[in-house]
Amino acid sequence: MKNAYVPIPMIVDKIGIEDTAKTLRTFDLRFVNDADCEQFKYLPGQFCEMSILGKGESPFGIASSPTEEGILKFTVNRTGLVTNEIHYLQVGDKVGIRGPLGNWYPVDSFKGENVVIVGGGFAFTTLRSLLIYLLAHRDDYKDITVIYGARNPELFIYKDEIESWKQRSDINLHLTIDNPVDGWVHKVGFVPAVAKEVAPSSENASVVVCGPPIMIKYTIPVLVDLGFSDERIITSLERRMKCGIGKCGRCNIGPEYVCIDGPVFTLEQLKPIPDAF
Amino acid sequence: MIKIEKSKFSVFIQNLVGDFTVFAPVGEGRQSAFDEVADAESVNTALQNTVQSPKSIFFPQTEVLFTYNDGDVQIPEAADKPFFLWGVRACDARSIMLVDKVFGRAKQRPDDPAFEDPYWKAKLDTAVILTLACNEPASTCFCHWTGDGPFEQAGDLWAVDVGSSYLIESLTEKGKAVLERIENASPAGKTEAAEIDSLRTQAESYLGDLVDLSELKDRMKQMWDDPAWDDIAAKCVNCGACAYACPTCHCFDVQDEGKKGKGKRIRLWDACMFPLFTKEASGHNPRGQAADRVRQRFLHKFSYYWDNYGESLCTGCGRCIYVCPVNLDIRTVVKRFLDIDAAV
After folding, report:
1. Quick one: pLDDT at residue B9?
2. Would B343 be classed as within a structural domain?
3. Residue B256: its pLDDT value, please?
4. For B279-314, how does the pLDDT look when each residue is reduced to its tens digit (9 = 90+)?
5. What does the pLDDT read at residue A275?
6. How far is B300 from chain A (nearest CA, A)?
7. A43-56: buried (b, 16+ CB within 10 Å) or exposed (e) per residue?
8. Would A232 disulfide with which of A44, A191, A206, B188, CB 3.0-4.6 Å?
9. What are the beta bridge partners of residue B22?
10. Reported confidence tier of residue B259, pLDDT bands at 50, 70, 90
């Protein structure tokens, strides 16, 4: 029987530093065993528990897309015990992962539709996965609109890729920061306000929102006003987790377990739950 | 159904000890628990119920998930003998089945064996559980509220203490195989059936008024912001004793013990009563207030679990009432939300 508590061995292949304060690092991990690589099937929106033996585990959204074969990418904010230890990892170090866990963004039902991606700060990880996936299957989808906000220009993650997305004519990219900064040529303002200004059409469209809870909370009414129906407003939630497989009981919001019923939920699913954000 | 004289009880236990690890009620008062026994003499057959529930047999308070040594991971060997549990009360036998709905194959991933808890399953799937009818329910018992009862049949075997002997009936194939091992047992007949009926009636008379819980699931949700939660939280000291004593509470933490290169990953009982249970590294805590946590506990028992599995995650064993240091009575809480006159 497969034991879901035992991590899959991985090797750190590449480390990217996302900000000058070095609190955000992106780790590309490759599988030690080819068989594990072969069996690891995932879709954008899913997550893993990254495991440092002796320190513990923490859940992270998978930032790579399944179309990027052979590696798994995670962007980690240095916050607590485990993330601190992860930041000490060097290229070539061993690390464990458990997953893929949770559900995923409904990329199949997006086919033939316009897709709007709204993200904030370093929560852009699974949204990167989604965007790379959509771009790899570009013909399956219609307009792709991305609204991505960060507190300041420094705190955008995947800056090189953002530059390449700017060059493409098949993405409507809108970047925004909280307060004006010299030399910033894009939008200024919080994500909900920018979403209202950009006003992506809700016709034949789904919207995926991921960011700090406060951003999600204030962006959703804007999207509702734009005419997106509850089942086409999709978000991804976070909670403290341990097992990741629906047993240990701490990540619930109402009857739903974020680790196994989520982390991806539609607004329709979250509406009856009083404290989802 | 068969009848075995109590004088043969030790032979019965002895017969099982070779092939099973036998667990039975031992100890007195607050120290009473299910523990491994080598002979019938160690069994405390006079207990109403153990203060510590039998859940720890399948879900120990601390359990090694694996050991690690320089990246080499070893899963502990499974127990060499199946477990036999003697004298589990119906409430506890059904509690194990309720936890099995969570620890067994996840309902969200019915086709994926990875979403099953292998440690729980390895122990439970081979275990044989003998339920002993409750001739004298305690003052804290309210199993009739949750659809259970002192004489409900649960587990693999069901036994009734009729004074000088035990009447035992098999409920499953596993139970039947054990019953077939018993020599010199006489078949039970009409006299015994009448005896059971009379004992059942007497046992049920010990239970208090019946409360219908069917509306509780929605009432507790509708009363999300009700001041009742603050009243309960004001009394509760968030000690978690209720959750540890509870046979259905199954939340756990996972921790690493040892140095970076060598040690073990263990799981430990945890409880939604503790502020750190949901506190995130960022400092954000979705259930930061005591009232949030008591609401979680009662909603999980009577509303969320019901949403997922169609029944409440409580079998009325009353242990939380017995162990609570501030006399918070789950029955009073339930009555308050059902508008039955009750002050918390």
Report:
1. 87
2. no
3. 95
4. 998 888 999 999 999 999 999 999 999 999 999 999
5. 73
6. 8
7. bbbbbbbbbbbbbb
8. A206
9. B84
10. confident
Measured distance between the N- and C-terminal CA atoms of chain B, rounded to whole angstroms: 45
What residues of B are in contact with residue A249 (Cβ under 8 Å)? 250-252, 270, 272, 300
Q: Is the pLDDT of residue B260 over 70?
A: no
Show residues of chain B in contact with A52, CB under 8 Å: 260
Flag if B272 and A249 touch (Cβ within 8 Å). yes
A4: nearest Cα among A49, A45, A47: A49
CA distance linking residue A212 with residue A238, whole number of Å = 9
CATH 3.40.50.80 given to domain A114-236:
yes
Number of domains in chain B: 2
**Nearest CB partner across the interface for A4, out of B114, B261, B279:** B114
Helices (H), A158-245: 159-167, 191-198, 213-225
Within chain A, all domains assigned CATH 3.40.50.80 are found at: 114-236
Residues of chain A in contact with residue B260, where contact means CB-CB under 8 angstroms, are 52-55
Structural domain contains residue B172: yes
Residue ranges of chain A whose pLDDT lies below 70 = 1
**Do the Cβ atoms of A250 and B109 come within 8 Å?**
no
The pLDDT assigned to A20 comes to: 87
Q: Which fold has domain A8-101?
A: Elongation Factor Tu (Ef-tu); domain 3 (2.40.30)
Contact residues on chain A for B300, CB-CB shorter than 8 A: 249, 252
pLDDT digits (tens, 9 = 90+) for B166-197: 999 999 999 999 999 887 788 888 888 899 99
Q: Are residues B79 and B169 part of one domain? A: yes
The average pLDDT across B155-159 equals 96
Q: Which of B65, B71, B121 sits opposite A9 (nearest CB)?
A: B71
Quick one: B234 and B200 in the same domain?
A: no
Both B265 and B326 in one domain: the answer is yes
Task: Give the whole-angstrom CA distance, residue A37 versus residue B191.
Answer: 66
A242 reaches B (C-beta below 8 A)? yes
- pLDDT computed for residue B272 by the predictor: 96
Interface contact B272-A250, CB threshold 8 A: yes
Residues across chain A = 277
CA distance B276 to B240: 12
- Going through A67-195 in order, the beta strands assigned E by DSSP cover 71-77, 94-101, 114-120, 144-150, 172-177, 187-188
Task: Establish whether the linkage from the previous residue to A100 is cis, with ω within 30° of 0.
Answer: yes
Rounded to a whole number of angstroms, the distance from the CA of B301 to the nearest CA of chain A is 11
CB within 8 Å: A254 and B304? yes
pLDDT at B343 (0 to 100): 58
